[in-house]
Amino acid sequence: MHVWLDIMMIALIASTSLLISVRFILSAVYWLAFQSLVLSVLTLVFGLAAHQSELLWIAGLTLLIKAMLIPVILRRALARIGLRRQAELALRRETLIGGVIAMWLIGYYVTPATPSLVGSHMFLSVAIGMLLSGVLVMITHQKAMMQGIGLIVIENGLFLAALSTSLGMPLLVDVGIFMDVFVVVLLIALLTVQIDELFASTHLARLRRLRG
Amino acid sequence: MSAIWPFMILAIPLVTAGASLVPLSTRRRLAIHIMGLLATSASVFALAATVTAGGAMETASGFFFVDPLSAVLLLVVTLVTLISGLHSIGYVRQDVAHGELSVRQERQYFAWFHAFTATMYLVLMVNNLGITWVAIEGTTVTSAFLVAIYRKAEALEAAWKYLILCSSGIAFALLGLIFLYSSAQDVYGPGSNRLDFTFLARTAHALPTPLLLTSFALIFVGYGTKVGLAPLHFWLPDAHSQAPSPVSALLSGALLNTALYGIMRIVILLLHTASEPFVVHLSLVFGLLSLAVAFPFLLLQQDIKRMLAFSSVEQMGILLFGIGVGTEASFFAVILQLFNHAMTKSTLFMTAGNLVQQYRTKQIPRIRGVLSASPFSGTVLLVAGLALVGAPPFAIFSSELAITAAGFAAGHPFTTALFLLLLAALFGATLYQLGRMVFGTPTAVRMTHPSRWTTWPLLLPLALATVLGVWMPHPLSELFQGAARVMDGRLL
Torsion angle, CA of B375/B376/B382/B384, rounded to 10 degrees? Predict the structure, then answer.
């Protein structure tokens, strides 16, 4: 049992780290879907271990919305502007890998070593690490959609934080958050396509008209 | 009977939003829009009257919680919505006539307009702080559609920055709430009400202080992004300047206050606990910083709507400073300031919208002689401007004076002196900018207002801001005092 929890934790760390350094935006969408899938399974395991039926619903919603619907929407938006769009970094890839490692270390050191309700206390560290890595994606990437993907990584980190510290937020709050994330993704997809039509690029350096 | 109002206040705007999308004749859609606005306002007034008479109320088995503080904010939101909604009719009609918006976009505009107001009402009426977060994030997504509505390069850029900055900022607030929730569960055991304001208000003092401080700092930064506190304000001038002017009025007069309400609720939990000094200092410092950052941008600004947006950064700084002073006198002043700022700033944004449509430019140097070109707009600009900067006899004069006096009395002589200095500087800068437009020889020929919808509604907030300076109706002052007591943690 605990071995599998550890494997899922490593899967989360690996998918987040790989997502930051992808070459094509489409790969990042796939890694995001994989990460959400792992989160959904993890929620299911937590729910079964703690006998919380609410968590089973949330696991289902995570699977449906985060692991399936959101990647499909992002992929469709990418298909409109070209599936082979490359991610562009503001930093060199080596620097970025150092940055990701720093994020995981910060996550490890800022979280107190209190045992979590299920499994190991490392999940909160991983959650903070994911949150910070999401911020790192948003800062270092130059393409509009990658910023949106960074935002969803942040949301996934928050989801894991709530899951590991208090077995998720109250059901109604979690459902509300899912709705928000869903609309945010719709808006990201819509704006990315419109920005691409108008600027003939989704490079954020083009978005420099408003100053002062 | 009173239990029905919160449901109505959410249902009416949502139904109106849905009905706005139905392809009906212009007349019918207009009727639906106006009826929706009036019915929502009437429900809000009924709810506020109930709360004024009977105090805080919980309905729907504790899902909704409305106390005098939320009632004041509800009144502010509904007044700004009503005026902005009426103004929108003429404004959007003009944009459609000029070909800036298509008829389909017009329908979307009204749908998002009402959906946006519904999310703001939800923020102000729910008990669970987690749902408050969901609703505040909801205000971001619904209003982002409105900011992007022109689909021009600048509008898309503004909407993108707005969505990304506010959503990532507010994520930190959620982390703070997660910590709050888990520490409440650690101390009091699992329970569905562990994030309810009514529960935490009674129990927060017993939660471990380090966790409370961490939560507060995260929530403060998260919601502070949405309030537009410097240095987290970068989205604000962009979104305010690119949105249609009635929406700018809503953003400044209603949305910023709604986000500030999120901070206020957490402040209430932490006042009179061991965490109070931290809350006080953080609020005072960020308040002053917002004033200091707003000054140069406001003084040198050439774009009329960006100038007004920086004035909103300033005003949010004043409100936060007043919250940081932390006495009942300063809380009352904060409520008064908040109400009057909402009225005057929304008037100014809508007048700016009229001017931009007539002069066909947002550049302040090209908008000259408004008073002689259009006596109505010129007078409104002048009166609302004086009311905004806090010239006597307007209410903001007395509220700013009261915050200053409370600051000295609470033992913050240096910070309050600095606050006063910055206020004086911003007073001058705002009047200078407005004076450039009001006086001088007109750059445009004498204008006629294309639609009465864009002018008459402005008289309501202007009248309120003028009257409240010299006389305050008894029920309103009672409600304001109730809100101040809530903020002081005395009505729990």
Answer: 180
Q: Which long-range contacts (CB under 8 A, 24 or more apart) does A98-106 make?
A: A99/A20, A99/A136, A99/A140, A100/A16, A100/A17, A100/A20, A100/A21, A100/A133, A100/A136, A103/A129, A103/A132, A103/A133, A103/A136, A104/A13, A104/A17, A104/A129, A104/A133, A106/A132
Q: Is B297 on the interface with A (CB under 8 A)?
A: yes
Closest alpha carbon to B261 in B9, B487, B83: B487
Give percent of chain A with pLDDT exceeding 90.
40
Residue pointed to by tokens 């088995």: B61
Angle (CA) B312-B290-B332 rounded to 5° is: 70
Rounded distance between C-alpha atoms, residue B316 and residue B430, angstroms: 15
Mean pLDDT of B360-377: 88
Angstroms from B228 CA to nearest CA on chain A: 15
Domain that holds residue A82: 2-206
Helix or strand (DSSP H, E) at A45: helix A25-50
Residue A17 lies in a domain: yes
Residues on chain A touching B306 (C-beta within 8 angstroms): 212
The verdict on a CB contact (< 8 Å) between B161 and A180 is no
User: Quick one: DSSP state of residue B58?
Assistant: E
| A176 within a domain of the structure (yes/no) | yes
pLDDT at B444: 62
Distance between B350 CA and the closest CA of chain A, angstroms: 21
Alpha carbons within 13 A on the beta-carbon side of B254: 33
Model-wide pTM > 0.90 = yes
Please, what sign has the CA dihedral across residues B108, B109, B115, B116? positive
pLDDT tens digits along A136-175: 988 888 888 899 999 999 999 999 999 888 888 888 899 9
Q: What does the block give as tokens for B140?
A: 């971001």
B454 — pLDDT class (breaks 50, 70, 90): confident
A211 within domain boundaries: no
Token pair belonging to B354: 């009229």
If contacts are CB pairs under 8 Å, which of residues 11-70 in chain A contact chain B?
none
Helices of type H across B360-374? 370-373
Q: Do B128 and A172 touch (CB under 8 A)?
A: yes
How remote is the C-alpha of B8 from its chain's centroid?
22
Return d(Cα A8, Cα B81) in angstroms, integer: 48
Taking CB atoms and an 8 Å limit, are A173 and B133 in contact across chains? Answer: yes
User: Which B-chain residues 158-187 have CB contacts (< 8 A) with chain A?
Assistant: 158-161, 163-164, 167-168, 171, 174-175, 177-179, 181-182, 185
Residue spans of the domains in chain B: they are: 4-487
Q: Confidence band (pLDDT; 50, 70, 90) for A207?
A: confident
- Identify whether A212 is part of a domain: no
Select from A147, A161, A210 the Cβ nearest to the Cβ of B178: A161
Query: How many Cβ atoms are within 10 Å of B375's Cβ, its own excluded?
Result: 11
Contacts of A1 (CB under 8 A, 6+ apart): none
Inter-chain touch A209–B157, beta carbons under 8 Å = yes
Are B337 and B401 spatial neighbours (Cβ–Cβ below 8 Å)?
no
d(CA B280, CA B271): 9
Based on the structure, what is the number of domains in chain A? 1
Q: Evaluate the omega torsion of the peptide bond into residue A115 and state whether it is cis, within 30 degrees of 0.
A: no
